[in-house]
Amino acid sequence: DWYDFHTGEYLPAGQQFTADAPLEKMPIYVKAGTILPVGPEIQYTGEKPDGPITLCIYTGADARFSLYEDEGVNYNYEKGSFTNIPFQYDQKTGIFTIGAREGSFEGMVTEREFQIRKITPQKPGTPFTGGESLTTVSYNGEALTIQL
User: Fold this and answer.
1) What is the CATH number of the domain that holds 55?
2) pLDDT tens, 127-144?
3) Domain contains 27
4) Which is the most buried residue in 26, 55, 95, 125, by most CB within 10 A?
């Protein structure tokens, strides 16, 4: 199953369709069971390191994702200077888990805001509008469990 990225329209698997593809709006489809992170618009890697991140959960299947971050300006990641934050969505229970941060690097953001947007066939949405719910949580590196 798929969702149209631009409209949030739910598209059941196993069918063919013709999509409009104007130059200014390329067709993009997101698989059900995807966690898609969307951050603020930036011009360079260090512009808004602590900006809020919207986590779009396209329901229909279990989902996993890991957010990787490093200094963004050097090769220190080769020496282990980076972090990973694991995310998991359980389709049956509706529980979304943000795992404990793994790793560290100099200047890392220790507290950040995540906006969680749940997108369902009944409540379509995009990374920017709509969806079933928009939940905002503050994250300090420790595991969180959220019922969506």
Assistant:
1) 2.60.40.1180
2) 888 777 789 999 999 999
3) no
4) 55
CB atoms within 10 A of CB 79: 9
* CA-angle at 9, arms to 55 and 120, nearest 5°: 50
Instruction: Give CA torsion, residues 10, 20, 16, 35, to 10 deg.
Output: -40
Sequence letter at residue 64: R
Q: Backbone phi, then psi, for 79, in 5-degree steps?
A: -105, 10
Alpha carbon distance, N-terminus to C-terminus of the chain: 20
Query: Residue 18: inside a domain, yes or no?
Result: no
Amino acid, res. 116:
I
For residue 54, give Cα distances in angstroms to 11, 23, 85, 111, 134: 23, 26, 14, 15, 9
- Domain extent, residue 58, equals 33-147
